Amino acid sequence: MQTEKLCKEIKEKIENVTNLKSLNDLKIEYTGKKGIITELQNGIKDATDKKEYGIMLNTIRKTFNELFEEKLNKLNEEELNKKLESEKIDVTLPSKKIRVGSKHPMTRTLEELEDLFVSMGFDVYDGPEIESDENCFQKLNLPLGHPARDAQDTFYLENEYEKYLLRSQTSTGQVRVMEANKEKGPIRVVCPGKVYRRDDDATHSHQFMQMEGLVIDENISMADLKGTLETFCKKLLGEKTDVRFRPSFFPFTEPSVEVDATCFKCGGKGCSLCKGTGWIEVLGAGMVHPNVLKMSGYDPEKYQGFAFGTGLDRFTMFKYGITDIRTLYGNDMRFLNQFTRGDEDR
Ligand code: DAH
Asked: In the prediction, which pLDDT does 345 show?
């Protein structure tokens, strides 16, 4: 009778349980250290009929364990179903559009030029945009007060000890690479990067990109400069491109030249892009001035060099038919979205 009553009680209690915690409490209540079943078990030593007592105990324990297991599985399953329900994914919902970025047109031009010069054996040097007056001007043969500084007026950052500025030309790379070369041996390097000037109109931006080139070695002549720049222009603008050299002036080169290429739009016949001349100016260049070599520790009796500087913005504008340089730096998505991944390698 006691067995039946107890089993009924167990069944009812387990049936009424609705969560795992209460089920666990029941387990303690019956099988814990001071649990009902445990106490019964301890009572076996005083039982008159130990066999019958043992059978009774087994029935109760078995009933409890079975009902407990059953309920435990049921509650676990319910919990899992609840979770699955709440985390259900509706595969029929419309998907979010994945936005795929692409390289900025300036980056494309930069990488194209870098690849070209690396293929000709040049290294790439990336210098800082904040520069000293010394590196940007003085060591390039533009002492304080030199009138050629006017064309490169830039943004100045005053410092108690030294005058810093945003570099107005990547020619600063020449100074940095020559000074870093402790053996004062040969150099073949291009220095691309952002430069800054006090400019702002459709063809001039306060920030733009240049690439400087510097070659220093023994027995370097104007012929090396011509050959390198001709190869550069033909590779970049097409094999049919003609190149001409006009005498010019830059304080850091002597002699200096400006390099024109046949207009890539009309092929030299004359059009609106080249203003009817058939030529487009693409580079400034020259033989490195002996003063520049000397100021950075090179012996001009032993070494000669040539240097060149070109603007990447103009190449990019011509290539993609961009008419206002400022759109290159405006971060306007309507402009940027026109350059998709598909045409990156074209
Ligand atoms: N730094 C010059 C500029 O920004 C460009 C230039 C001209 C660089 C002649 C050179 C060079 O290395 O030889 O206008």
From this structure: 53
